[in-house]
Design goal:
With about 350 residues, the chain is α/β, with parallel strands linked by helices. Helix content is about 30%, strand content about 20%. The protein has 3 domains: about 170 residues, Thiolase/Chalcone synthase (Peroxisomal Thiolase, Chain A, domain 1), CATH 3.40.47.10; about 120 residues, 3-Layer(aba) Sandwich (Peroxisomal Thiolase, Chain A, domain 1); about 35 residues, no CATH class. The chain has a 5-stranded mixed β-sheet, sandwiched between helices. It is globular. The protein binds coenzyme A.
Amino acid sequence: MIKTKIAGIGKYLPSKIVTNAELSKMMDTTDEWIVERTGIHERRHAEKHTETTTTLAAHATKQACERAGISVNDIDFIIFATLSPDYYFPGCGVLLQRELGITNTECGALDIRNQCSGFIYGLSVADQFIKSGMYKNILLVGSEMHSMGLDFTTRGRTVSVIFGDGAGAVILQPTQEDNQGVLTTHLHSDGTHAEELAMINPGSHGGRHLGTEQFGYPDPSVWGEVFVTQKMFDDALFYPNMNGQLVFKTAVTKFPEVIMEALNKTGHTPADIDMLIPHQANLRISQFVQKVLRLPDEKVYNNIQKYGNTTAASIPIALCEAWENGLVKSGDLVCLAAFGSGFTWGSALLRWV
Ligand SMILES: CC(C)(COP(=O)(O)OP(=O)(O)OC[C@H]1O[C@@H](n2cnc3c(N)ncnc32)[C@H](O)[C@@H]1OP(=O)(O)O)[C@@H](O)C(=O)NCCC(=O)NCCS
């Protein structure tokens, strides 16, 4: 039976470190507040004049290809997960293809817009393509350049202290070996609270359903008529907004649920997990999940302290770093899990090659 294995993994973090102390010079916040509520000490910000979400992804991809022993021209399908694309359209998949110099037009490019669970969604899609025999070298990349689109004034402090820039990539290949590869993936969504962690402006909603002051469409006569309003500029309503408490409460329920779903499906228990790589949403969320599953510290990998929440990139960056540090080894049962905007959430279980 064909399964999907991670044949190579890479990551890229921009070199510029932004500490909590530096943020506190831009907005009314403190190192203590940020560390206590999120666990984050510092994050990376890309170089605005030379880097984009696509160029970050290109660095991570090259490293993943090198480690998989393939050239970028061997990639036969690109899956690009991000919420901070270079352009509204086209998506980053084709931009990455161009950036890497891939001239093979047989190579398809798919963009995934599932925010924090984008990598898990992408892995599940890739897994189906590999198992069906359609592709042999899929590039799955998660990349974010949040720093370009956050409000670094006190108005945006709840969101802007949490997020950081970075990219992680994997090369996925078929394997027929018994004890390796993706064992199962599980995807979920519930749009009830779509606007509670979102960046909604500008958009085709044109204020129709949401036409309130809060969302930038104070004048009902223009609802459904206009794409951009003056109020959006005046009140900076083109930044992300987040209902932190709702996100927290929902995340701590959904993470354990979806991890247990993957374990149950494959006849495992939490004790069988060798390494849990949770999406790096917030250290307190990861610690809560760890406690519920009764996992010891050495079985949960967290690096949000150094990088902040890098959304679609957080799982491949953490997985890559854990592997580089020798904490993920051949034969290990690795569990990936994510929750985020949408809300969408998911999990994957794999045996490391
Ligand atoms: C965002 C989060 C850290 C906020 O913590 P909280 O305890 O819920 O804090 P609240 O939103 O209730 O705000 C408490 C106070 O801190 C203030 N505050 C918000 N951001 C702040 C910051 N960066 N620095 C200092 N104070 C801040 C608020 O304005 C509020 O002030 P007030 O009491 O005077 O109104 C927390 O809700 C959280 O971790 N949520 C999950 C977020 C997440 O994981 N997102 C990623 C999902 S993938």
